[in-house]
Amino acid sequence: MEVLKIATAGSVDDGKSTLIGRILFDTKSLTSDKLEAIKKTSKKKGYGYLDFSLATDGLVAEREQGITIDVAHIYFSTLKKSYIIADTPGHEEYTRNMVTGASTSQLSIILIDARKGIVSQTYRHFFINNLLRIKNVIVAINKMDLVDFSESVFNEIKSDFLRISNKRDFKEQKITFIPISALNGDNVVSKSDNMPWFDGCSLLNYLENVKEKDIFNKTNSRFPVQYVIRPRNQEFHDFRGYAGKVYGGNLSVGDDIVVLPSNKRTKIKGIYFFNEKYDTATRGSSVSITLNDQINVSRGDMIVKAGDLPRISNKINAVICWMDEKKLTIHSKYILQHGVNRVFGLVNEIYHKINPDYSGIDSNIISVEMNDIAKISFELNSPIFCDEFLNQRANGSFILIDELSNNTVGVGFIQ
Fold first, then answer.
1. Residue 155 pLDDT greater than 50, yes or no
2. Are the CB atoms for 57 and 17 separated by under 8 Å?
3. Which CATH number does the domain housing residue 149 bear?
4. Which of 270, 305, 340 represents a domain boundary (last residue)?
5. Smallest Cα–Cα separation from 397: which of 92, 100, 88?
């Protein structure tokens, strides 16, 4: 079954956790004990309704303060698809959590309170979606019941958001506006009778019918080798397979390929998943590949189609989101984890800090602080096989690791 990965973003009290809880409730995805706990807690708080936000806010601090702090992943399915929702925090101080939660998502939902309209955090949420090249963005204008389901309020917020979207540099984004009431369920799972002026579909209906072309770019085929398979039995004595995950486009038996970094050329002989054999490995498939020729291939090597090679370089420019309390400075040294490869990276230059409210850049900075987004130049101790993040999200991103603490301190997107 197809899996759709979704990131959510919204400011405090915009109803993000309530929306997710409502979807889980209406699709009958809440366990009986979880539903009973929500009923008891809602009654204890004196609510005359079920507080669906309790379905996702897992930390004690989240439940006490009524806010989202950590990234929670919620799983549910319908007859058409399976879904993984990254419930990300909307606060400025948790920008790093928002970036990590959205980094693997294929679609994003940005919530806006119909009473408040566009706020400063809305700029940040959309900026991160633009930065992460999320191709399909749903703008869910929530709490329409509190503005009498007004069409004019909806249209005004829609116009304001479109003015923000004109500032983005990723023009391939598809933006869809849906008016909802998460608390009451209007336009969440089912179409609402309270907004007959809205001719679109419900939120869940949109998610079920979103097309692959609307969430994926046509990208290059990349197969980083994670493990070399050499069975130690007589039946498969001569078997040599290379296990990994296919990123970007498909790989098929008979494809002319190049193995990096050796630049050895051969063809794909077979594609396997356990004891099954396939002609084609599609995007996202975890498979084992055999080659026509016995050439040296090791963990960390990359198999790509001939004529479709990535950039091979020991110098990269990247936009990073910094996640550590210790500042990043020029000449700092980090472990750069790119796919299965680890290299050392030295900060050559800090070009500028990027303001996520679309107010421009700050130049002449000497350090990058927690939650800052900046453009950085790195020099690596050995080359990596990379793509621009715009063209290949998986092969165009990396994480930075502090070599002393072993903490992940930043995430980068190659330019």
1. yes
2. yes
3. 3.40.50.300
4. 305
5. 100
Bridge partners for 249 per DSSP:
none
Q: Reduced to 3 states, what is the DSSP secondary structure of residue 80?
A: coil
For strands 256-260 and 264-273, give the pairing.
Answer: antiparallel
Same domain? For 153 and 197 the reply is: yes
Q: Are residues 284 and 352 in the same domain?
A: no
The neighbour count for residue 359, using CB atoms within 10 Å, is 10
**pTM of the full predicted structure?**
0.85
Label the pairing between strands 397-401 and 408-414.
antiparallel
Q: Judge if the upstream peptide bond of residue 356 is cis by omega within 30 degrees of 0.
A: no
Q: What is the distance of C-alpha 262 from the center of its chain?
A: 32
Report the SS3 class of residue 109.
strand
Using CB atoms within 10 Å of the CB of residue 246, give its burial: 0 to 12 exposed, 13 to 18 middle, 19+ buried: buried
What is the enclosing helix (H) or strand (E) of 303? Answer: strand 302-305
- 134 with 47, same domain: the answer is yes
- Could you write out the DSSP letters of every residue in 128-187? HHHHTT-SEEEEEEE-GGGGTT-HHHHHHHHHHHHHHHTT-S-TT-EEEEEE-BTTTTBT
| Among the ranges given (29-43, 147-161, 316-330), the one the predictor scored with the smallest mean pLDDT | 29-43
Q: Do residues 126 and 40 both lie within one domain?
A: yes
Determine the Cα–Cα distance for residues 116 and 156; give it in Å rounded to an integer. Answer: 11
DSSP string, 220-262: --EEEEEEEE---SSTTTT--EEEEE-BSS-EETT-EEEEETT
Q: Please write the tens of the pLDDT for every residue from 50-95.
A: 776 777 655 434 444 444 445 678 888 888 889 898 887 655 565 6
Residue 60: strand pairing partners: none
Q: Helix 95-102 and helix 120-131: axis angle, to 10°?
A: 40
Cα of 194 vs its chain's centroid, Å: 33
Please give the structure tokens belonging to residue 154.
Answer: 């909806």
Number of domains within the chain: 3
- Domain boundary (271, 290, 305) is at 305
Question: Which residues constitute the domain of residue 240?
Answer: 222-305
Same domain, 321 and 278: no
Does residue 226 sit in the same domain as residue 200? Answer: no
Q: Are 376 and 368 in contact (CB under 8 A)?
A: yes
| Phi, psi angles (nearest 5°) of residue 388 | -65, 140
Q: Does 317 share its domain with 285?
A: no
Q: Are residues 117 and 174 in the same domain?
A: yes
